[in-house]
Write a structure and sequence with these properties.
Organism: Mycolicibacter acidiphilus
Number of helices: 7
Strand order of the largest sheet: 3-2-4-5-1-6
Helix content: 25-40%
EC number: 2.5.1.17
Pfam families: CobA_CobO_BtuR (PF02572)
Number of strands: 6
Shape: globular
Distance between the termini: 33 Å
Strand content: 5-15%
Oligomer: single chain
Enzyme class: transferase
Low-confidence stretches: 96-101
GO molecular function: corrinoid adenosyltransferase activity
Radius of gyration: 18 Å
């Protein structure tokens, strides 16, 4: 894709502008670092274009406040005060399964994830946001807490112009097939391999 020019142009009866502005379903997966970071970077770009941004974290602990959350929420406040950019909402939808397991059974965690997905579905149907980050959403799908066929169908039939990016390892093949853009982060080296824990400004 030299200089941003597609290698082929499909025979779909769309104009260049129509094809260029189609809403995208994006997936950032793989074992390497940077899946969520890349998604939040796109959210920042969207905010700058005036997009209504909605972030939904599915499994990080409710106590875990990443740096991107602070920045995006401040940008949401800036929009409220000045009209610059777009509105921002940030929601923690799960029970902190992957980072800090809370009390409760697996059924409790599954119910939380299902409720979070139901809320996202409602917002997609109502076209609440222009850009959605479903952070670590691959895990509830992998664990069977959320039905992948329902997810794929919902994304395929979402109305209007709503971009969606899903992050997490081991993205389901059906989700990968349905997506317009899939990036796999491959780990080559990581400081944790040498026993170094995450540090401020790099991991959060």
């Amino acid at each position: 894709m030299p200089q941003g020019v597609p290698l082929t142009v499909p025979d779909d009866n769309l104009t260049t502008k129509q094809r260029r502005n189609r809403p995208l379903l994006m997936v950032n997966t793989g074992d390497g670092k940077g899946k969520s970071t890349a998604a939040f970077g796109m959210a920042l770009r969207g905010w700058n274009q005036g997009f209504k941004v909605g972030v939904f974290q599915f499994v990080k602990s409710a106590k875990w406040r990443v740096g991107e959350q602070a920045v995006l929420e401040r940008l949401g406040e800036l929009h409220s005060q000045t009209g610059e950019g777009g509105p921002v909402e940030w929601h923690k939808m799960g029970s902190g399964w992957s980072w800090s397991r809370k009390a409760g059974t697996a059924d409790d965690h599954a119910a939380d994830a299902a409720a979070g997905w139901a809320e996202v579905k409602r917002r997609l149907a109502e076209q609440t946001h222009d850009f959605y980050v479903l952070d670590e959403f691959t895990y509830p799908i992998s664990w069977g807490w959320v039905d992948v066929d329902d997810v794929v169908e919902t994304f395929a039939n979402r109305p209007g112009h709503q971009h969606v990016v899903v992050t997490g390892r081991r993205a389901h093949p059906k989700l990968v097939e349905a997506a317009d853009l899939v990036t796999e982060m491959t780990k080559i080296k990581h400081p944790m391999d040498a026993g170094q824990k995450g540090q401020r400004g790099i991991e959060w």
